[in-house]
Amino acid sequence: MKLTRRTFVAASLMCTTLLSAPVAMAEPGAWSDEPVRIVVTFPPGGTSDLVARLVAQYLDTEFGQKAVVDNRPGAAGTVAADYVATQPADGTTFILANNAPFTIAPTRFQTIPYEPVEGFTHVAYIGASAPGLFVQPGLGITSVDDYLAYAKENPPTYGSSGVGSISHILGEAVNAKLDIETIHVPYQGSAPAIQDFRAGVLDTFYDMVVQNSDMIEDKEAVAIAIASPERNPELPDVPTFAEQGYDVVIENWVGLSAPAGLDPAVADQVNETVLAVFALPEVQQRLTDLGITHTAMSVGDYTTFVEEQIDVWKPLIISAGIAE
Amino acid sequence: MDILSSFYGGLLVVLEPQNLMYCFAGVFLGTFIGVLPGIGSLAAIAMILPLTFYLEPTSALVMIAGVYYGAEYGGSIASILMNIPGTPAASITCIDGYPLARKGRAGVALFSTATASFGGGIIGMIVMAALSPSLATLALSFGPADYFAVILLGLVAASAVANGGALRGISMVVAGLMLGTIGIDLTTGDLRYTMGIPELRDGVHIVIVAMGLFGVTELIVSIKANVGGKSTQKIDYADFYPSKQEWKSLFAPILRGGSIGSFFGALPGTGQTIAAAIAYAVEKRVSPQRKDFGTGVLPGVAVPEAANNSATQTAFIPTLTLGVPGSPPMALVIGALMIHGITPGPRLLVEQPNLFWGLVASFLIGNVMLLVLNIPLIGLWVRLLQIPYKYMYPTIIVLICMGVYSLNNNVFDIWLTLVIGAAGYVMRLFKFEPAPLLIGFVLGPIMEEQLRRAMLLSRGDPMVFLERPISATLLAITALILIGASFAAFRSYRMTRNQT
Fold it and tell me: What span, in angstroms and rounded, lies between the C-alpha atoms of B277 and B436?
């Protein structure tokens, strides 16, 4: 490249920017000699657990940072969050943050033993997956408008992963938006709800859309709408609620957070390292398989995101009638 | 013929040296972890899960399965020797297993459970090979009303488990049902009996109840009985093998236990504990030795072990063919397969025949390994009983605490176990037995859940239970048992009255 005056100015400007913001350019790499723990709010086997294990595995193989997954399920994620909030902020304990303890519990429960924003250093956003509405193919419903017309005549049953779960909150949000009454049938997780749906006892159910792509392909279920802002590239034929004229957006996000007071330099380094892990093509592929869309966020952006999410979810939880 | 050739294909897959090795590693590790009180198959599978990411999918599945049934078998060892269930399902094995050990027949009991496990495993394997598609369809046609009916049948059968009189038995079942209501109400999200303790929101874990009622209670009782701190167990080394007559008395129970276990294993959401509990209850009704159940009879240990092991294997049917995990360990299996890009579901049998049939064949190989591994070890296990109690008890209580802590990594669970253990001791003093309580506790929550779900789905119409053929048949059988029992009770009452 020829060194022109313009490129010289640009280059020197870039250098100053680099020098003035050394923290933001933390190098990805191991940050602790000790193995770090990633506390998961769910028992082993679910999406959260798989994401945590994915992070742990690649932190080790790519950067030599040993990491173990520590499942502490219970009380809608508050047990794990409370535990992590009270651990030393030395960069060895993280929580695989998600809606349950950070955006649902603060509104749902009268008291929780931790501060969802100030009680943590929110370090790295990972991504989000979107739930949607599935209906029995036999009902001939293919759009939200069809569903509205049907539901006005025959209040349908819908299965959810349990009271206070994301699928329940979405179900109630859709009911409120469409001004319909349906019969909520809660299950312990989505698997038994799907089983009853397949057995034909449920008219509809709400669950993460991409995870059920097999059922959509096999025409065992019709996904009439997904609650993401835009269509998912994995399932381009499933329209969003928004584009059908019903503004319902609910996403199940995951991130990585540490106890409050983590050294900002360490936080940035962890952020860079985790982002580097998620930039790997094979990790991207695994996330896509799990139905998670990854977005890179800085420490600051992620902290603001968590704060905003609490406000986004608050009215949804109150209108779902699950606040204590 | 088709099944046989597929099975042969699967056998060739498992007999590859690496798969054989992983099968053995799984079975060995599973047995070892199963022996440790409270640490069950879920923890064992979670531990090896990261390892399976690096294996071929078939090897991974074969190893996980080995850990799973290995742990369920290993769970019976501590149940028999020390009245400490290694896994929740093994608490049913405690009922007759521990009295057998007290009679000095621990070796025979262990031998019987090894054989019963093997028998149950083979039955489970045959069921899986021959009936996978039809059992998957059956599981799909099981609606909430049908689940309710089958569990009610089990509960009615289970109320016969008690030895100390019907009233005591029923009151313990009710206590178990009540204990099972603690936590968030699944249907409304309301808190029940949590007393402001966040740890109780999710209810009391089955391992805590089993550990407390059997393990801790037993420790308190034994400490009082053995102030000297020396082991008093006598062991007759010549007496490890069941007599010819006992062999014969085991055959039918293993067959019954294995069949009942296969059925409940294939039903998602029920699992080994329910399978073992119901198989034991049924056996207690039909066995020629039913009068002695609970005092230490061999069929009493063989039945739950056969049911338990066959249920462990048929649990793979809904997991693999429907993608529905029947139990938390099965959710891990689905997770492990998804890591390899395999989505369990109706297409798996067609798309991954090697995986499916390799797994089925590994049940045969794995169970043979389990038998070969454990029969020589029986002598070693029994020798454990000779360790003086003053060393044994502290070790056991530490192991119990570790096992309970490993559930949720929460200290509260340890305190709860100790409280339940103390309560169990008080119950023991008043001659109330723990078994019916445990069965009420296991069956209650699932029965309530399915009842309320069925009522929600029928929009409040109770006729749904009589309209569905499966549920109506099961309810009719339940009614017949109840009528028969009351008739028998009435007759024996009249007989005693006429005698006086």
Answer: 9
The tokens 């959401």 sit on which residue? Answer: B269
Q: Provide, as residue numbers in chain A, all residues whose Cβ is less than 8 Å from the Cβ of B142.
A: 199
CA–CA distance, B359 with B60 (Å, rounded to integer)? 10
The alpha-carbon gap from B355 to the nearest alpha carbon of chain A, in Å, equals 19
Residues B341-371: pLDDT tens digits?
Answer: 777 777 777 778 888 888 999 999 999 998 8
Q: Among all residues of chain B, which has the CA nearest to that of A290?
A: B338
- Kindly determine whether residue A183 and residue B459, on different chains, have CB atoms separated by under 8 Å: yes
Distance CA A207, CA B447 (A): 25
> Are the Cβ atoms of B339 and A49 closer than 8 angstroms?
no
B-chain residues near A56 (CB < 8 A)? 50
Please list every residue in chain A whose beta carbon sits closer than 8 Å to the beta carbon of residue B199: 74-75, 79
Containing H/E element for B203? none
Give the separation between CA B6 and CA A324, rounded to whole angstroms.
55
Pick from B198, B324, B334: CB nearest A79: B198
**Least CB-CB distance to B201: which of A75, A185, A196?**
A75
Q: What is the DSSP string of B138-172?
A: HHHH--HHHHHHHHHHHHHHHTT--SS-HHHHHHH
Q: Tokens 């056991």 correspond to what residue?
A: B396
pTM of the model: 0.78
Distance CA B312, CA B432 (A): 31
Q: What share of chain A is helix, strand, coil (3-state, %, to 5)?
A: 45, 20, 35
Q: For A42, which residue in chain B has the nearest alpha carbon? A: B408
Chain B contacts of A191, Cβ < 8 Å? 268, 323-325, 331
Mean pLDDT to the nearest integer, B145-170: 74
Quote the CA–CA distance of B403 and B407 in Å, as a whole number: 7
Coil, strand, or helix at residue B295?
coil
Report percent pLDDT > 90 for chain B: 17
Distance CA(B339)–CA(B61), nearest Å, equals 12
Closest CA to B256 of B292, B307, B291: B307
Note the pLDDT tens digit of each residue in B466-494: 988 889 998 998 888 788 777 777 777 77
What pLDDT score does A180 carry?
93
Residue A74 distance to chain B (closest CA, Å): 6
State both tokens at B397.
Answer: 């209580």
Residue A239: count other Cβ atoms within 10 Å of its Cβ: 18
> Quick one: CA torsion of B330, B331, B336, B338, rounded to 10 degrees?
120
Q: Lay out the sheet containing A157-160: strands in order across.
A: A183-186, A157-160, A204-208, A131-135, A222-226
Least CB-CB distance to B46: which of A44, A76, A198? A44
Answer yes or no: do A185 and B453 touch at CB < 8 A.
Answer: yes
Task: With CB atoms and an 8 Å threshold, state whether A50 touches B338.
Answer: yes
Cα dihedral sign, A250-A251-A256-A262 = negative
Q: What angle do CA B417, B423, B424 make, to 5 degrees?
A: 85
Q: How many CA atoms lie within 13 A of B357 on its CB side?
A: 20
pLDDT in tens, B209-265: 888 888 888 888 877 776 555 555 555 555 677 788 888 888 999 999 999 999 888
Q: Which residues of A touch B189 (CB under 8 A)?
A: 163-164, 186, 322
List, for residues B98-120, the tens digit of each pLDDT value: 888 888 888 888 889 999 999 99
Is B322–A56 a contact, with Cβ atoms under 8 angstroms apart? Answer: no
Please determine, for the modelled complex, whether the ipTM score is greater than 0.85: no
Q: Please give the backbone phi and psi of residue B76, each rounded to the nearest 5 degrees, phi first.
A: -75, -20
CB contact under 8 A, A162 and B186: yes
Element spanning B339, H or E: helix B328-339
